[in-house]
Design goal:
about 425 residues; Methylamine Dehydrogenase, Chain H; Immunoglobulin-like; 2 domains; 4-stranded antiparallel beta sheet; about 5% helix
Amino acid sequence: MYKKLLFLIVLFFIVALNAQWIQTAEPYTNINCFAVSGKNLFAGTNGGGVYISTNNGSSWTVINSGLTNSDVTSFAITYSGTGDTNIFAGTAGSSVFLSTNSGSSWTVINSGLTNSDVTSFAIAYSGTGDTNIFAGTAGSSVFLSTNSGSSWAWLNTGLTRPSYVTSLAVIPSGTAGTNLFAGTDGGGMYLSTDNGLSWTTVNTGLTDVVVQSLAVSSTETTGTNLFAGTWYNGVFLSTNNGSSWTEIDSGLANSPILSFAALPTGTGSTNIFAGTNGSGVYLSTNNGSGWTAVNTGLTNTYILSLVISGTNIFAGTEDGLWMRPLSELITGVTPNQNNLPKSYSLQQNYPNPFNPSTTINYAISKSGLVTIKVYDIIGRKIRTLVNEEKAAGNYSVLFYGSNLPSGVYYYRMQSGSFFETKKLILLK
């Protein structure tokens, strides 16, 4: 009996010890940004360039060939219709670099990009499969590339405040095009509904105009939510595309909000993490209504960046990387095995016919790489909707056809040995 009790006590302390943040191996420097592409996790650093982990953060490798500026401030990832992946790295002083081979080599792409301090990115896909890449810079300017970064156009009409763009976010409008948001250091929030050609301020209720970070979270029950992290007044939420803002800081420390991480759209989750400047990481499980510190084991509380990759959350700090299993923090991240899908499935989109958007539900019974691509009637790829590692579970993805002609299209899902194709109809 004594040995059994001793074993249980030791086991309790082992579990308690592991239920905390753990610092990974290098890089041991400022981690400014993250990006996830399939099994690859990228970290952009201040002075160390780009690191990659292919084993969920257990080890990291420097990948700086051709990267002549090691101060990496931001990332963006795009997928082409053929499944190719482009990784964009913004830098402080040398504009943007592009890698088409998972970071093995980099090429500078700054034609027309007259501001070399790139602070943020946003990606917007059109119904024709075209990709708009927006780059926010110091100096209150946004630039647009429609050709994978080969050239950039200056978009500044209405961005009148002489401060820099700290963050960008995109919300599909549901009709045609997108709502593009720019958070600025001193001018608050700006909105463009015409792909950045013109901007208007959307600061009603936003009592702090020093916006440091943005995040978009969407569920069937809460709709689409836009979170803004500020320097002085915590977190603000807009549920109406920026028309008005509400301060949601119950439980938050009085610290600047530097970063966010939210579970991907389609998981049905209302959980969101906020990284602060000196008070660590906070978690809200109710869409921002209340916040709780989740800092056990975290010795550096200056959280420059956050990302969710697989079943872990990663925090970038001033002295390196920290990771923690989501299952320690969020109920249901590791689902009950009895509730997991027992097989792969691809559901018929709804509504069908549709105009301009439709939802595609799918299920995977085993973790792995999932791709869902849309083709026209003659078999040309026009859009990649999903191309990433996913845990077993049920998901949904939206498809927007606002810029496509009416007609019959096909969408195909593949994961492991499973593949299935279904027909959808766009009727305008």
